[in-house]
Amino acid sequence: MSFEKTYNNDLAKLLVGIPEPETYLNIELEKIRERALSLNSSREQMSKGYQMVLEGLAQAFPDIDLNDPNLKGSPDRMARALIEICSGLGTKEEEIFSTTFPAEDYNQVIILKNIDFVSLCSHHFFPFTGRASVGYLPDTSNPKESRVVGLSKLARIVDCHAQRPQLQERLSYNVMKAIEKNLNPAGVMVVVTGSHGCLNCRGAKKENAEMITSALSGKFKDDSKLRKEFLSLIKEN
Q1: What does DSSP say about strands 211-218 and 187-196: parallel, antiparallel, or unpaired?
Q2: Measuring CA to CA, which of 110, 117, 211, 222 is 20 to 30 A from 44?
Q3: How many CA within 13 A on the CB side of residue 135?
Q4: Which residues fall within 8 angstroms of residue 179, CB to CB, at 6 or more apart?
């Protein structure tokens, strides 16, 4: 375990300003312990399921050797991989947007583009990968309520919604709604480009095919010039 990573990801923010950090830390460590045991129980259950999948594959194709050294431990690796790729299900939006700042008089589009992601198609449980570009326009007519946020938070909200079983359409919409809900901007626009394993590796087998989806709200939906500005800045036609 990388204790530095655990500290930075889970504990550092919680300990800021705590008058009795040792007492608070004991409570948080107990929560981490309970969560780790719960995840381990899930891993064990999924590993048994993946073992059944391999045995079913051997029934369909008897030439496969389940004693192949490369397959030893595969059910456990498959289980751990699924827990990792679905980790967004355990991430809360409010934690990502826990620190925001007043938008004040800034009235131009804020964009973070080419955010890499890995997600999981809920139809076939094949991975799909791609990039997302997200932008929002602060609402200067309501400067007390409209907020801006650090750029890393825009990347993290994409990961939060990408790392779960879903459709790309839902990913685009949920990222847009999360920014809209937490920052109260005048508008949000999200464009997602994805390459889907269920299309590239099976079925139609179109290796170079990419899917593009978008989600818009507020002024991005009403103002065609603003949409064109966004698309021009991220170089999406």
Answers
A1: antiparallel
A2: 117
A3: 26
A4: 134, 136, 154, 157, 185, 188, 190
- Amino acid occupying residue 29: L
Residue 89 tokens read as 């299900």
For residue 184, give the amino acid letter. Answer: N
Looking at residue 198, its amino acid is C
- Give the DSSP letter of residue 69: T
Between CA 231 and CA 237, with CA 235 as vertex, the angle to 5 degrees is: 65
Which positions of the chain have pLDDT values less than 50? Answer: 237
Domains and CATH numbers, the chain: 3-85 (no CATH), 95-234 (3.30.1130.10)
Which tokens sit at 220?
């991005």
- Measured between alpha carbons, how far is 217 from 73 in angstroms, rounded to an integer? 47
3-class DSSP assignment, residue 189: strand
Rounded to whole angstroms, the Cα distance separating 128 from 193 reads 10
Q: How is 93-155 classified by DSSP, letter by letter?
A: HHHHTSS-EE-TT--S-EEEEEEEEEEEETTT--EEEEEEEEEEE--TTSTTT-EE--HHHHH
- Report how far residue 36's alpha carbon sits from residue 80's, in angstroms, rounded to the nearest whole number: 12
Query: Model pTM?
Result: 0.89
- pLDDT, tens digit, for every residue of 145-185? 899 999 999 999 999 999 999 999 999 999 999 999 999 99
